[in-house]
C-alpha cells in the first residue's frame, strides 16, 4: 500500500506544514484563507468545518477533516482578469 500525502504528513510530523488540502482544492483553499484571517479563538471551529483539510491546532495536534463533494461550479468563482497574461505573450500588443 502506498502511503498518501496525508499519512506521510501525520507520521513524519512536518512542523513547517500546518495545512494540507486533499483532492480538489479550489473551494477548501478559499475557506482556509478566510479562516486564517479570523481571530485565533474562532479559527479552530472554522478549520474543522472545511472539507478535505488536514490541519494542526494550536497545541500541534493533527486533524484530518472528511473529504467533501465534487468541484464547485464555475459561477462560484469571480472571472479572472487575464489581460496581463496576454499582454506578456503578445509583447504588449492587444
From TrEMBL:
Region described as Disordered: 60-94
Identification of the protein by name: Uncharacterized protein
Amino acid at each position: 500500500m502506498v502511503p498518501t500525502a496525508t499519512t506521510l504528513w501525520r507520521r513524519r510530523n512536518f512542523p513547517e506544514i500546518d495545512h494540507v488540502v486533499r483532492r480538489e482544492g479550489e473551494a477548501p483553499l478559499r475557506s482556509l484563507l478566510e479562516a486564517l484571517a479570523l481571530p485565533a479563538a474562532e479559527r479552530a471551529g472554522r478549520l474543522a468545518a472545511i472539507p478535505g483539510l488536514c490541519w494542526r491546532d494550536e497545541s500541534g495536534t493533527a486533524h484530518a477533516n472528511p473529504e467533501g463533494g465534487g468541484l464547485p461550479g464555475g459561477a462560484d468563482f469571480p472571472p479572472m482578469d487575464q489581460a496581463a497574461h496576454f499582454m506578456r505573450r503578445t509583447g504588449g500588443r492587444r
